[in-house]
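The instructor's notes for this session suggest beginning with a concrete chain rather than abstract definitions. Hand out the sequence below and ask the class to guess, before any prediction is shown, which regions might be ordered.
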Amino acid sequence: MGTFSADAFNEAVGRRLHALRQARGLTQTAMAQQLGLGIRTYQNYERGEREISAQAVRNAHHVFGVDPVWLLDGIENEPLDHWSADADTLEIVLEEVERRLEAGRIRLPPRKKVELIMIIYRHFSTAQSPDQAFVENAIRLVA
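After discussion, reveal the predicted structure:
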């Protein structure tokens, strides 16, 4: 990722963090505490001056129920924290996740597996051209 695209990515994530914080009515200090971050680290994320860590994304998901795909790659202005599913697409994602977990001999508790399926489903249902590498990255993030 080049400097410009990295900066643009970080700024976009920062805008979504800001939208999430505003939607929850939190100060930057309270948001940082909720995410288990130092205030300066959080401020750097929100200003787009630092790339968000996987742990911060995971914490945003667990604490606020926010969709990790939205946080990293969303196009909406408001935090996406709910979803509906197309059964056919969901079945394809479930089968793919099961196949990859089995091939990698990865065992996940049911809650983690559901989170993984949700992340991948959201990506495949919103991406114009779904990225197979995204699946591998999501598995690494959740596992």
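Then share the key points. The chain has two domains: 3-57, 87-142. The helical segments are 3-24, 28-35, 39-47, 54-64, 68-73, 87-103, 110-126, 132-142.
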